[in-house]
Design brief:
Oligomer: heterodimer
Radius of gyration of chain A: 14 Å
Number of helices of chain B: 0
Number of strands of chain B: 11
Number of helices of chain A: 0
Structural class of chain B: mainly beta
Order of helices and strands of chain B: EEEEEEEEEEE
Largest sheet of chain B: 7 strands, mixed
Helix content of chain B: under 10%
Largest interface: A-B, 26 and 30 residues
Amino acid sequence: KNQVEQSPQSLIILEGKNCTLQCNYTVSPFSNLRWYKQDTGRGPVSLTIMTFSENTKSNGRYTATLDADTKQSSLHITASQLSDSASYICVVSPNYGGSQGNLIFGKGTKLSVKP
Amino acid sequence: DTAVSQTPKYLVTQMGNDKSIKCEQNLGHDTMYWYKQDSKKFLKIMFSYNNKELIINETVPNRFSPKSPDKAHLNLHINSLELGDSAVYFCASSGQGRYNSPLHFGNGTRLTVT
C-alpha cells in the first residue's frame, strides 16, 4: 500500500535553532517527492520538489534530502525563525503523467518556533 | 495578486442545505483540483479537472458535484449537507503535462455543518 509517514508529529524549538523533519515512504513507482509548508489558516505552499535522481535541494534556509534507495527524505531548517511555525507536509508522486491527482500526502509535522 | 482564490473563506450552514464553493486561478494552468482536509489535517483528493474535463473522481458521495465553466474556474457544489462534511476544502491547480510542477493551493474554505 502506498503510504507516506512523517515524524515527529510535532516539534517545538527555540528561535535560531536548527531542526530536521523526517519522511519515509512506501510509494511505488516513484516519480518525485515534495515538501510543502502550511501556515495556520492557509493553503500549502511548495518548498521543494525532488525527482529520483536528485538527492538534495535547497530553498533559502530549507534544505531537503532524498535517499531513493531507502525511501527516506528529510527537511532541514536552518536558523529557525518565528515565521517557520507551520505544518510541513511530505508528498510523494507515483505518477509520470500530467495529472497529479494521485499524490500521496503525509499527515505533516507541526513545528512551533518559540522566542 | 492571488494565484488561486476561493470563496467564501468560511461557510457555516445547517444540515440538509445546499451550498457552493467557488475557485478561480490566474496562473494559466490546465489542471485544477479539489482537496478535503479533515480534522486530522490529512489532505485527500476529491476531484481533478483538466481543461474542463473530469479526469479523477475519488470515492466521494454524489452529493458533491464539481463544475468547471472554463479552465480557470472549478466550483464545488454540495447538496444535502451532512455533519461529516465539515472540513476545510482546498482548491489547487498545476501546469499541464509537467509531472513535477508544484501544486498551487488556495487558502481554503472552512465548512461547518451544524
